[in-house]
């Protein structure tokens, strides 16, 4: 179980978001957060008692902000806001995404810039700690004015309406789930509807989760690329540090260093290192792997910097400032996140594309340097891994479509009041699908490269690549007649997803 995450005095880190979202870490609002919340709420309460109209406190929302709402109707105003904005559709979001956006909204509430009441923030924390996950649907956010429909679905459950899943995965009316957890449903007061919905939390949560996955997958890609270089009788000389230093991108240097280490001590590489070797240069998919993987690493580093800035931000509209000023602003616009989410989708597609090209070389007798056709035991009778490459190709084609930017699109909404939106939510959703696709593509390369290394016997692979092959052999048998291949792809993917493949590389 992950450690408890404290919100308030310190900024929330990416690792902590992952701990809450995926590993059910509990959260606590520290003394600083509670003080911030109480102070800001006092300002909102004071404004609520004045005759002056204040957006989100005593007015309608969006294009309806011109209407002043009398005090006796303001509870209705907040309730109506959440009910009307919980207008999502499509597939239900993954539990980890919902938990991520919940903890990120709570993080902003803890800054004291939203005007939320202490008891409302405490109820949201209690929902997280009880493992109650509101049912949230995929469509409904334009990445501007906040991730409105998804966050409104969470707020709806906080009010005791809609549906939610318990920690045990049982789907119940939200009111029942709250009652079983001993949590009182919240009746929202002035400003609280906006405070709960006007944030980039869904986009940011998906960016943080994708970044964590991609950091590991890029390390796995270095390993599977090294295995393919070895299996195809490629050279490791191109990964030397002095060559990489001529173009000093940090990601490229790291990928080359990892690939060189993975190939260290390989009898297969040593077998064709002498003057008798007639191959002067390897194909780009082998020789340029550090350049492609490294560019993806540097892209990821930029995206993580954006995520870190967003994690230190207070996203709401209007916001409560020092001295009690409440001001409208545009900080809810998701452009910074949308851009890097789209950028990462491009990197994901290209890393998968170069992996598929390496795989295809291992299956083609014209380019595999002596490997049997499609790595089959008896080519003609057996088809080997022919169709595994088809699966890779289909996924890579899909990833290229997913790499088309969402953030360049905009559809005006709210009677042209919200006339330019980021579509960052859509960028995040397609990036999640892209990450899943890359994992499968690398699983196929792992399968093929491991089989090719076996077929190079009696020559032995390097300790690192050999350890990766041996790990795979604990769940997938070695070369032989054709077998049902789908379970083997799934087993390889599960090894990557579990972190076991990466752990073998690090340990060896």
From TrEMBL:
- Mind telling me which CDD domains this protein's record contains? PAL-HAL (cd00332)
Keywords, A to Z, come to:
Histidine metabolism, Lyase
Reaction it catalyzes: L-histidine = trans-urocanate + NH4(+)
A GO term from the CC aspect: cytoplasm
Question: For this chain's UniProt record, which GO biological process terms are given?
Answer: L-histidine catabolic process to glutamate and formamide; L-histidine catabolic process to glutamate and formate
**Which portions of this protein are annotated as coiled-coil regions?**
none
Pathway it works in = Amino-acid degradation; L-histidine degradation into L-glutamate; N-formimidoyl-L-glutamate from L-histidine: step 1/3
UniProt main location, coarse: cytoplasm
What's its EC?
4.3.1.3
- Compartment(s): Cytoplasm
Task: Spell out the molecular function terms from Gene Ontology.
Answer: histidine ammonia-lyase activity
**SUPFAM superfamilies tied to this protein:** L-aspartase-like
Annotated family = Belongs to the PAL/histidase family.
Q: Which NCBIfam families did the record assign?
A: hutH, PRK09367.1
Please identify the protein, giving its name as recorded. Answer: Histidine ammonia-lyase
Gene source species: Prauserella marina
Source taxonomy = Bacteria, Bacillati, Actinomycetota, Actinomycetes, Pseudonocardiales
